[in-house]
């Protein structure tokens, strides 16, 4: 069964740091782009970051630039999100998701498998 | 920045057809994707590349994309389809989500 399991969420003070992890099973992590997406309480989905199969390309949403770092360890079947300088508005459920690149001109991207998420709460 | 606009809510009677729209300047030239999210659950992709259904998604779900508007259509809507629906596009290495539409089946 294809599965993504996130961990590492919790309560942290404003200005603090947190590292989220996501373990993949049921598929070969090294052959897929991966993403982090978050959802604040009662709000919509917000893309956080993407990373290429070998980690050579990384892209970030505006709210993550300069504060968050996405990384991966394919040997450990794991994806990570290092979050620094956390703010109250970073409070959300953070989802790990498997990316699918659509071969087209220009190429396209979506997420076909999602984890259950891990909750991050930043207290001010 | 590129934005996708969805109606906040749509209501439909059981057995009827529900249509949820997603508008964006570049949608005609980009694929649209649709995710369903039920309360307390993770999103699930129900339509990819404008019109394609993943395996396991009922045939009553269909999609279209023309001009600047993508549409998710649910034919013969069932109570189990009540959920939030989010459209998504990809532009300049950025994932964009619409604000979401709450579908109520009543």
Describe the overall structure.
The complex is a heterodimer of chains A (124) and B (106). Chain A has 124 residues and is an all-beta fold. Helices cover 0% and strands 56% of the residues of chain A. Chain A has no helices and eleven strands. In chain A, strands 2, 4, 5, 6, 9, 10 and 11 form a seven-stranded mixed beta sheet that branches. Chain A has a four-stranded antiparallel beta sheet with strand order 1-3-8-7, with no helix packed on it. Chain B is 0% helix and 46% strand. Chain B is globular and about 40 Å long. Chain A binds chain B through residues 35, 37, 44-47, 50, 59, 61-62, 95, 100, 102, 104, 108-112, 114-117, and chain B through 1, 30-31, 33, 35, 37, 42-45, 48-49, 54, 84, 86, 88, 90, 93-100.
> Looking at the structure, what is the overall shape of chain B?
globular
Assembly state here? Answer: heterodimer
Give the overall form of chain A.
globular
Number of strands of chain B: 9
Helix share, percent of chain B:
under 10%
Strand coverage percent of chain A: over 45%
* Largest β sheet strand count, sense and barrel closure of chain A: 7 strands, mixed
Percent of residues of chain A in helical segments?
under 10%
State the low-pLDDT regions of chain A, or none.
none
Percent in strands of chain B: over 45%
Number of helices of chain B: 0
- How confident is the prediction overall: mean pLDDT of chain A? 96
Structural class estimated from helices and strands of chain B: mainly beta
Distance between the termini of chain B: 36 Å
Global Rg of chain A: 14 Å
Q: Which series of helices and strands of chain B comes N to C?
A: EEEEEEEEE
Structural class of chain A: mainly beta
How large is the radius of gyration of chain B?
Answer: 13 Å
| Element-by-element helix/strand order of chain A | EEEEEEEEEEE
How many DSSP-defined strands of chain A?
11
Question: Between the first and last Cα atoms of chain A, what is the distance in angstroms?
Answer: 40 Å
């Amino acid at each position: 069964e294809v599965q993504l399991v996130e961990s590492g969420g919790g309560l942290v003070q404003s200005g603090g740091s947190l590292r989220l992890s996501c373990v993949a099973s049921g598929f070969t992590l090294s052959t897929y782009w991966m993403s982090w997406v978050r959802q604040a309480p009662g709000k919509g989905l917000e893309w956080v970051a993407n990373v290429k199969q070998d980690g050579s390309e990384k892209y970030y949403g505006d709210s993550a630039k300069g504060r968050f770092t996405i990384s991966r360890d394919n040997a450990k079947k794991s994806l990570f999100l290092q979050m620094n300088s956390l703010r109250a508005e970073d409070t959300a459920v953070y989802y790990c998701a498997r990316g699918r690149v659509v071969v087209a001109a220009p190429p396209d991207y979506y997420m076909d498998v999602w984890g259950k998420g891990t909750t991050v709460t930043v207290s001010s | 920045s590129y934005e996708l606009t969805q109606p906040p809510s749509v209501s439909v009677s059981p057995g009827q057809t529900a249509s949820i729209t997603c508008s964006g300047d570049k949608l005609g030239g980009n694929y649209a994707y649709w995710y369903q999210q039920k309360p307390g659950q993770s999103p699930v992709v129900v339509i990819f590349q404008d019109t394609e259904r993943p395996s396991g998604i009922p045939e009553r779900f269909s999609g279209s994309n023309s001009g600047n508007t993508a549409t998710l259509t649910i034919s013969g809507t069932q109570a189990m389809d009540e959920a939030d629906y989010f459209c998504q596009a990809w532009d300049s290495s950025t994932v964009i989500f619409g604000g979401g539409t709450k579908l109520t089946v009543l």
